[in-house]
Specification:
This protein is of the alpha/beta class. The chain has 2 domains: 161 residues, Nucleotidyltransferase, domain 5 (2-Layer Sandwich); 169 residues, Nucleotidyltransferase, domain 5, CATH 3.30.420.40. The protein has 12 helices and 10 strands. It has a 5-stranded mixed beta sheet, sandwiched between helices. Strands 8-7-6-9-10 form a 5-stranded mixed beta sheet, sandwiched between helices. Helix 6 packs across helix 8. The chain starts with a strand and ends in a 21-residue tail after the last helix. The structure holds 5'-O-[(R)-(carboxyoxy)(hydroxy)phosphoryl]adenosine and zinc ion (ZN). The site of 5'-O-[(R)-(carboxyoxy)(hydroxy)phosphoryl]adenosine has 19 residues, from helix 5 and helix 6. The site of 5'-O-[(R)-(carboxyoxy)(hydroxy)phosphoryl]adenosine (KG4) has 19 residues, from helix 5 and helix 6.
Length: 355
């Protein structure tokens, strides 16, 4: 079966085609980074308007690509949440309308399940069960994954998500948006011994995270050095590295704690911050030290993309098949309901999980 995947939850317009027999056929991404950069962050209304402009040409492009060979789709998957409501509505209305006109099922996908399943698109996919560290702009989650559809949240951020902390810290250092790649780029020139920032919540039991105090600590440090904000380039690099090391170390401590507590032997890392080189190297080292293995999607499948939505849509479609999805337009299908706030644990309904 062939499934079209559509991603519009935030500031990337993504579209992809996944084939259950052949794997990923084609994927394309239109980033809105240049649009939002001048405002220092994502402007929701502009994001939605840009998805409207970009999505249909992008879908048209992959459907008529040489890779797709003119093949018809068997289902359409779209991100239904969590995310920005206006942005989500664009993908939902296009996805549902295409499915209706082609008389095929429309599959609503949870954005974080997309991230969680992204490593399955790689050559060496992790076998179930595993622990997933999902680190994006809006979420930091540690999830025990028993099998497809069975997700137990072990820990999460109580305030800023890891990506959000990168973005806010970059902003206060004058590094612009998006903050994660900017911080890790400039941190390469940093001195690792100049600043040692706190590792939040590592001395308390449990697997929750809190990054807002770390961000405040960086602000206080920067202000104490230069109240006017004119930090020299070397100091900015040193602070950026101190911050990056604190986040990476904190995530590492929680991941090894989660592996030890659950006895799981595999860790997957996904979501935008999962593209961070220092984090990938560190987690590979600490999993090896405790006899576990780390898996990641390629960096372009860590950040938002249509491929992960097509794949997660295929997984959901397999679950829906037993429920015989309707392909004629009923009242539920006719509504473009999206879920800007939506817990990953809520999509477990109907799946036979062991716990
Ligand atoms: O998953 P994602 O693309 O979008 C959301 O679902 O939020 O994640 C975006 C986040 C942003 O906060 C961005 O700064 C961060 O991922 N990010 C990174 C890197 N690349 C993207 N953070 C650290 N290092 C990176 N290389
Ligand atoms: Zn995301």
């Amino acid at each position: 079966m062939r499934i079209l995947g559509i991603e519009t939850s935030c500031d990337d317009t993504g579209a992809a085609i996944y084939d259950s027999a052949k794997g990923l056929i084609v994927h394309r991404l239109a980033s809105q980074v240049d649009l939002h950069r001048q405002y220092g962050g994502v402007v929701p209304e502009l994001a939605a308007r840009d998805h409207i402009r970009t999505l249909m040409p992008l879908v048209d492009n992959i459907l008529h690509s040489s890779e797709n060979e003119g093949k018809k789709m068997d289902a359409v998957a779209y991100t239904a949440g969590p995310g920005l409501s206006g942005a989500l509505l664009v993908g939902a209305s296009v996805g549902k309308s295409l499915a209706y006109s082609w008389r095929i099922p429309a599959v609503a996908v949870h954005h974080m399940e997309g991230h969680l399943l992204a490593p399955m698109l790689e050559e060496n996919p992790p076998p179930f069960p595993f622990i997933a560290l999902l680190v994006s702009g809006g979420h930091t989650l540690l999830v025990d994954v028993e099998k497809e559809g069975c997700y137990q949240i072990l820990g999460q951020s109580l305030d800023d998500a890891a990506g959000e902390a990168f973005d806010k810290t970059a902003k206060l250092l004058g590094l612009g948006y998006p903050g994660g790649p900017a911080i890790s780029r400039i941190a390469q020139n940093g001195d690792p011994d100049r600043f040692h920032f706190p590792r939040p919540m590592v001395n308390r039991p449990g697997l929750d995270f809190s990054f807002s105090g770390l961000k405040t600590h960086v602000r206080t440090t920067a202000h104490a050095l230069q109240p006017e904000g004119n930090l020299d380039d070397q100091t900015i690099s040193d602070i950026a590295l101190g911050f990056e090391l604190a986040v990476v170390d904190t995530l590492g401590i929680k991941c090894s704690r989660a592996l030890k507590q659950t006895g799981r032997k595999r860790l997957i890392i996904a979501g935008g911050v999962g593209a961070n080189r220092r984090l990938r190297d560190h987690l590979r080292r600490i999993t090896a030290d405790i006899g576990a293995e780390a898996f990641y999607p390629r960096p372009e499948f860590c950040t938002d993309n249509g491929a992960m939505i097509a794949y997660a849509g295929y997984v959901r479609w397999k679950m829906m098949k037993s429920e015989k999805p309707e392909t004629s337009m009923n009242q539920k299908q006719a509504s473009f309901d999206v879920k800007p706030r939506w817990s990953l644990e809520d999509i477990q309904q109907g799946v036979d999980c062991q716990r």
